[in-house]
Amino acid sequence: MNDYNLNQPVNVITESSLERNLHKYIDFLSFVRWYPDLYLDLIKPKDGGIHLHFDQRVFLRAMSRFYALYGCFPRGFSKTYLEILEYFITAVAYPNISLSVTAQTKESAADFLKDKCAEILRHYPMFENEIKGKPRFQRGEAEIIFKNGSKIDNLANSQNSKGQRRNRLHIEESAMLNNEVFEDALKPVVEVPRYTAGKLAIANPEELNRQIHFFTTPGFRGSSEFERNLHMIKNMIDLKGDFVIGANWMLPCWYGRGSLKNEILERKKVESPIAFAQNYGGEWTGCSDNALVNIDRLLSCRVLKNPILKAEKNTDEYYMGVDVARSQNTNNNQSSAIIGKVNRNPATGRIISIEIANIHSISNVLSFDEQAIKIKKIANEYKPKVVVVDGNGLGAGLIDALLKEHIDPITKESLGCWDTINTDNKPESEYAEKCVFDLKASGIQTKIITAFVDCVDSGKLKLLEKRQENDFTDKDRENFEENILPFIQTDLLIEEISNLKVKYGNNNNLSVEKVIKKIDKDRFSALAYMIFYIYEFCSFTKREVSKQFDISKFPFRAATSCRERW
């Protein structure tokens, strides 16, 4: 009672410690938002944490200060770790903000969050005081909720994300992003801004609302993401809030991150030039002028989940294309065999799609007879109606070998004897199966190229989807050739196609030319030959077949055999 002042008004509230120091809290919060790397230095434990390198500090500050950032970095740069780390800081500094990490699939995005969250909490344990409960990771879902109401979760770079609402996005592996999907499904996700906490909640005009950052290893020139990169560089020059940053393998290697220099140089010897340039060289590869096909349309053809290892039904319609390599590169001197499955409209017979079931490489170190045995063993799994073989140059030797009777050296079973359907070559057996189309590409290159481009542009071509190394399980790795190799072969096929540009000759005749000479085009050639044959002789409908045909107008007997099936 002695301390009670009777003269003090009853309703007066004294100034609290928070109110007296409010300006200090504001200054500190501004400091955290503007200098995220220095904030990390403050909360780093004395015995632990990580020492941020200069390039990492620049990267963190750029992410926190710009509306749109495009980061192109090599494997081992730690870009995924840094982008998730920046999200942790943002979640702490902005109450009730909703943040999402996106990837090709929702499962991949969840895996990124799970792995990096564990690393971040190990390096900066103070973040555990900010998180409400335990982070949730299950069944492709990831969610980290903070005590201030902020949340980090995952989305997919697909139409499944349409209708979702978040305040900011980080897009992983954006080089594989379809621009139509981005504009329609992802860009509207950040339309709603974050509102400040309290009774007078408003959208802070100084905050980076609707922020979208892109992170990737470089992809292909001519793609929509390459064009986005160029557009953002122009915006950066014009000070419009965009920032583009990138590096090659030398930068993280200099600081001791990722693989050692000698390991990377050894990898350069065995990887294809395009794969190394993208994954470690920090280069957008391929051609942007006179490209053979629109790279975005080609990448959109990658929709198949799994390879087809053998024909599932006797009624399935398969074709096979074979190109004999003439490469001077002994490391990659291989012929290619591609199997395609034709899907038709049951009512009309019109081709709906051509699925690439599998791709095989056959070493040219083998003799023609040994190559023929491998091709026949592959064909026995699919029973293709026609095997289109490049008969030019060295291909003539393979044609001769295919017309012989062969025995499987392992099972000792007969692999049969083949015959051509468009030449007078005599097979070894009079009972030989007529299934080989001896293709002489000279003179019909324009038709071959036109058919291939049409197949890609129309969306009829279907290829295996893109998968990253962490998308494969240990069980997948137990059978590498069946579960992983087909996806690698498809990647190599995409690299070959992206490296080709159209060359115009006399009378508007078309041919293809390689941008990087060291990259072969055998997979592309095998695929193009097969598509040409299907388009030229097997693309008609039932209605067209029912009309009266003058068979003599068709120079190849293959035309007759295709019509008979209808």
What does this protein structure show overall?
- By secondary structure, this protein is α/β, with parallel strands linked by helices.
- The protein folds into 2 domains: 17-267, P-loop containing nucleotide triphosphate hydrolases (Rossmann fold), CATH 3.40.50; 295-564, 2-Layer Sandwich (Nucleotidyltransferase, domain 5), CATH 3.30.420.
- Helix content is 37%, strand content 19%.
- The protein is built from 21 helices and 20 strands.
- The strands form 4 sheets. Strands 3-4-5-2-6-7-1-8 form an 8-stranded mixed sheet, sandwiched between helices.
- Helix 15 (445-457) packs across helix 19.
- The protein is elongated and about 105 Å long.
Entry keywords:
Nucleotidyltransferase, domain 5, 20 strands, 19% strand, eight-stranded mixed β-sheet, 566 residues, alpha/beta, Rossmann fold, disordered C terminus
List the helices and strands and how they pair.
Blueprint: H1 17-20, H2 22-34, H3 36-43, H4 54-65, E1 68-72, H5 79-93, E2 98-103, H6 106-123, E3 136-138, E4 141-145, E5 151-156, E6 168-172, H7 179-186, E7 211-216, H8 224-237, E8 242-246, H9 250-254, H10 261-270, H11 273-279, H12 295-300, E9 302-304, E10 317-323, E11 334-344, E12 351-363, H13 368-382, E13 386-390, H14 395-402, E14 406-407, E15 414-416, E16 418-420, E17 433-439, H15 445-457, E18 461-464, H16 474-478, H17 480-483, H18 485-498, E19 500-504, E20 510-514, H19 522-537, H20 542-546, H21 558-564
